[in-house]
Amino acid sequence: MDVAVLGxxxxxxxxxxACAGAGLSVAVWNRSADRAQxxxxxxxxxxxxxxxxxxxxxxxxxxxxxxxxxxxxxxPAGACLGGRLVVQTASGSRDDVAPFVTWVEGVGGRCLxxxxxxxxxxxxxxxxxxxYSGPEEYYEEIAPLRRALGGLSVHLGPDIRCAxxxxxxxAVWYYAAVNGFxxxxxxxxxxxxxxxxxxxxxxxxQAGVQQTVDVGVELLERGDxxxxxxxxxxxxxxxxxxxxxxxxxxxxxxFLPVLRDRVRQALDDGFxxxxxxxxxxxxxxxxxxx
Length: 290
Prior knowledge:
Pfam families: NAD_binding_2, RedAm-like_C. By secondary structure, this protein is of the alpha/beta class. The chain has eleven helices and eight strands.
């Protein structure tokens, strides 16, 4: 087999189907045998045990719920992992990575971390974006798998913790956007803006958001937040108005008063002509870097 997939929930099933669709032979295993059996078809074979699945392929993709579950599932097959490349896609933090890698390498296996930046339905399409971390030769070794998954794949470097750290940052961005959407719905329903019209307008704002990010990153790297376009003083009146509307309209726990107060604090600290990215200075400086 070209690939073994352990765990055939939504993501594992999507990986198996994408690989099979790309012409790779796939072995699948799942604790609930019926889920794995449902995938059986051209290029997909169900294995009855984890050991059988691991022995079937030199590349083992883990699509399981967390590192503890992954370790629990793999332990009975530890003797079979010698020389196998384990591609770990489980959710977790960067602190979960090292103990798992140490165990896999201790039984003779190899590890590559992966993180999908999207939903299972994107797997196998141009919209599937995946980041990897670990030895570059392992990343190159799974080129057929990466092509089958589709979209964009990026190797973040040899530090195997990077993929999960990146996923955490990406998740913060996603949930910040979700929170913004939820509050926009609240504002729209209170101001009579049709939600369909709001949804259609979202792409119009994406270029501005991207510009804010690009400029912010440049200023952070430069260590100088002065910026002629939209200095900090221009944000306070807008945030005052929005925060007041939220409070008066009963939109509780809004992020807007918090952001308004952070801008006020920055102005009190003497920042006026700086870009809004200067608010990053209000966060404690990290003492440990990845």
